[in-house]
Amino acid sequence: MEKATFGAGCFWGVEAAFRELKGVLFTQVGYEGGVTEHPAYQDVCNQGTGHAEVLEVTFDPAQTSYDDLLTLFWGCHDPTQFNRQGPDFGSQYRSVIFCHTMEQEQAAVVSREREDLSGKHRRRIVTEILPASFFWRAEEYHQQYLAKRESVWKGDNL
Questions:
Q1: Residue 76: which domain range?
Q2: Considering its fold, how many domains does the chain have in total?
Q3: Residue 10 falls in the annotated catalytic set
Q4: pLDDT (tens digit, 9 = 90+) per residue, 91-126?
Q5: d(CA 60, CA 65)
Q6: How far lies 140's CA from each of 40, 137, 143, in Å?
Q7: Closest by alpha carbon to 33, among 5, 48, 52, 10?
Q8: SS3 of 73, please?
């Protein structure tokens, strides 16, 4: 099993997208890349921590490759928006790849260059590629947030 960590805006939608990918065994949302220990959601939203909202993915490389994860990452957000995604703005919504190994870093750099030259985007890609730092798991109500809301909408909890 391997880990990969991505920031691509609000972590709720990012998590929902990655949970659908074959070979993804476990996901958890949290905060990474800042200076504050044990950050709380409100602290991150106030931009005082330096953390990004991220998704940590545990995956089976025999079922899905890191390149497959990168392809999904590029497709699930706009990597040309600096410190924002759609209506959500602030450094916590930045586009970032946190690499757990040198191989991941090399693959991420090549992938970013390929995506930037693809012609899909009107602006240059601003995605950061950084070494993984400490992952702080977000509050429980954020975990699989959209899946929980969907079950409520469908009446599964009635």
A1: 2-153
A2: 1
A3: yes
A4: 999 999 999 999 999 999 999 999 999 999 999 999
A5: 8
A6: 11, 8, 5
A7: 52
A8: helix
